[in-house]
Amino acid sequence: MRIRNVILDWSGTMVDDLAPVLKTTNHVLQSCGQPPLSRAEFRREFCLPVREFYRDRAPHLTLAELEQRFLAEYVKHRDEIQLLPHTRAFLEFCASARRAVFVASSADAGTYDRQMRRFDLHRFIAKPYIGLDDKTRQIHHILAENRLSPRETLFVGDMEHDIAAGKAGGVHTCAVLSGYSHVEPLRALQPDLICEHLGELQTVLTRQETSYGTDR
Description:
alpha/beta, Rossmann fold, 2 domains, 6-stranded parallel sheet, 10 helices
């Protein structure tokens, strides 16, 4: 595949925010009279869209009410977010190859902007799409608005919802194991690639670029 455009998930793909998200989620659950989750339980049970995760846990709250509770607590923990080790090098790699990079994330805009400024990554992103409730519905808008060819576009994410969104848009998909989901549910969705992290994806794309250049 010849990849000219990359759509990246944010949480678990570009940044490690599992610890602050888990702390905040447990705060929300306990405020609803639900027991907290261990890290292993959270990785096994958390899903997107987030309304699906809370459907049976807090059926009396609207999505807006859940978001309000979440964000009120999350601001206390969000500076614990760390950049994943291979993110900057991968973005520099894409920039050097003139690949357009987009971000598609359910993260709130305030947290995203704060961390992107903190890590000085804004300059690598052609356009971010933040606060997405359901990526499977919004992928077509991203492709159309930026005139992206599906056969030249790769969606990269760490959760089943990311792979489902990529497939809904007819683009190539890559599951990374640096975030929330375990390999088994990701593999079940049959992404085009499964990589440990963005560093391994960079190696794969470099190898494919070299092969493409040789075959021309």
